Amino acid sequence: MEPRSEMVHWFFATGFLFLGLILLSRAIVGEQVWARRRWRLYLWPSIAFGLGILMWPVMTFFTNSAIHMIAHGAWAQALMVAGAAELGLVRGKLHNPLWRLATPVGIFVSGVAFLVHEQNTWFFARSAFLHHLIGWTLVGGSLVPLALAVRPRSAVLQSGFAVLFVVVAVMLYCDRDLAPVFGHLSPLAGVPHR
Amino acid sequence: MQTQIVTHALAVRTHRDYRAFIVSALGPLTALAGVAWAIVQPYRITLLHPHHQGFWWLFAEAPLLVVAAGAAFSFLIARPLLADLEEDDGAA
């Protein structure tokens, strides 16, 4: 039996929260201390890549329309490319700094995917509201890694990037399959299950 | 006595302590947030009323996932990071 859609959001929220904490601690201690153990450099790109891989089962098992499948598929690829590009840069296989743009592009595509696969209006139900909110947060938030690609050592931008993941994690934890948002719930959505 | 040098050393030390304090607090604070959430919305902890619950309802408990993320960060990331911060402090 498959988990409910809201549970999948909570699992991804946990991954995003863990990723946010990792990025925040990196921003706090600085690159010098963070790089004292080599494995730590691979940590966040690996998690981003892993989250991209995990989007494939989401695409396979939680697809109820063509637009869902396309959005989840594009999203999986964007996250994997972003993680792989960062891994390549850390490993030294990639040298062109333009590869750093893979992360803001990945975040932007993630935001667009959220917006595209939510067909209902903001106040249809809580999940619709959160999908719109997360989508626009990621679209706007993609400017942070974009600035970070230009100024990679900025502690403020690194912290901002980390906070972006924590904020998205909080929003994902708020997701419910069928629940009102600020007292609004469309009668077309159905009856809340708990 | 060259007081300016002493003052500078103390300032550096304070900055490092500040960073270590924040990193060590991130995990417990996250776990605490999960515990607070569980207290505010106890019905989300299905382990408290496990009868007639399927596997996924017992496994996916959002407040406990937050606690798990905080604990995992504390043990897997923060601990070695604090040790490195201390080593870096000693080397500086």
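The interface with chain A takes residues 19, 22-23, 26-27, 30, 43, 54-56, 59-60, 62, 65-66, 68-70, 72-73, 77-78, 80-81, 84-85, 87-88 of chain B (CB under 8 Å).
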